[in-house]
Amino acid sequence: MTRLGYQIPNFTYPDTPATQLFPTIVRQAQEAEASGFDTVMVMDHFYQLPMLGRPEQEMLECYTLLAALAQHTERVRLSALVTGNTYRHPSLLAKTVTALDVVSGGRAQLGIGAGWFELEHDALGFEFGTFTDRFEKLEESLQIVLGMLRGRRPTLEGRWYAVRDAINSPAPLSRIPVMIGGGGERKTLRMVAQYADDSNIICPLDEVSRKLDALAAHCDRLGRDRSEITVTYQLSGCVAPTHEQAVAEAEAWFATLPPDVAGLSRARALIGAPDRLAEVVATVLAAGVDGVTVNLPANGHVEGRVHLLGQTLAPLIFAH
């Protein structure tokens, strides 16, 4: 399960041509592994998200990228944070995640969510549907994917998906953990209680306790042991050896964003020297979660920054 995850959310780096893009990503993954992260994650999107840049900026297909990173890492789990369920038929997703597990030597993790980025769906021809549609699809998908990953041959005649005696061969090398992303208290956290090993939540810190209570209530109702589920909290940061360096690197990135987006990103980002990030993460852990997932969109590409982040956070997380 994930307790300290490093997410790579962007692939637009200053002075980095296409020929050096993958080596820059590899370096981040290797620094994460060497410094104590247990999971390396990438976003499952095809356009860059509005809070991180412009739609036309670089975005690599996540499962191809994860399979490639498997050849350059040895221990970290590899996952999407999170797979957009609407982009792949569940039987294809089960086969894809299984292939990742095989080529990584048993290190795949399935992160999954209902999908939300409407522009991407409309532009590329993926059916978006209503909020209710997407959550109905996710629940049907989980029944199929989990059946295939756990050695069964699921059959389902659902409203959205149909499979018949679906075979998954070869089987995964490991029991692939399932993480459901999102903090919706009625639908998402109920699905976590029913289907998942991990939960990754994004919300204001003062809402964490309520989310955890909602998850516990769903577990009680479904007869699930809440302690079986690992809960992480997502943070976006910019860390450097000094506060001044971190601010400078963050501001250089904010300058590349539209002014309204830069303002939102600046308000949400955790910027500073290692002691500042450690202080905030300690507060997050005190709220009751088991760990964190962190991204460094402003300076993760700078050599040594991911390593500094891992060295700072791993002792806190694994002593918790």
Describe this protein's structure:
- The chain has 320 residues and is of the alpha/beta class.
- The chain has one domain: Alpha-Beta Barrel (TIM Barrel).
- 43% of the residues lie in helices and 15% in strands.
- The protein has 11 helices and 12 strands.
- Strands 1, 2, 3, 4, 5, 8, 9, 10, 11 and 12 form a 10-stranded parallel beta sheet that branches. The protein has a two-stranded antiparallel ribbon with strand order 6-7.
- Strand 2, helix 2 and strand 3 form a beta-alpha-beta unit.
- Helix 10 packs parallel to helix 11.
- The longest helix is centred in the middle third of the chain and has 19 residues.
- The chain is globular and about 60 Å long.
- The mean pLDDT is 96.
Please give the structural blueprint.
Elements: E1 4-8, H1 18-35, E2 39-42, H2 62-70, E3 77-80, E4 83-84, H3 90-103, E5 110-113, H4 118-124, H5 131-149, E6 156-157, E7 162-163, E8 178-181, H6 188-195, E9 198-201, H7 208-222, E10 230-239, H8 243-254, H9 259-268, E11 270-272, H10 274-286, E12 291-295, H11 305-318
Parallel strand pairs: 1-2, 1-12, 2-3, 4-5, 5-8, 8-9, 9-10, 10-11, 10-12
Antiparallel strand pairs: 6-7
Q: What is the CATH topology assignment?
A: TIM Barrel
> What is the tally of helical segments?
11
Number of strands: 12
Give the mean pLDDT: 96
Q: How many structural units, i.e. domains?
A: 1
CATH architecture: Alpha-Beta Barrel
Rg, please? 19 Å
Low-confidence stretches: none
Strand content: 15-25%
Oligomeric state as shown? single chain
Can you tell me the CATH superfamily?
Luciferase-like domain
What is the CA-CA span between the terminal residues?
15 Å
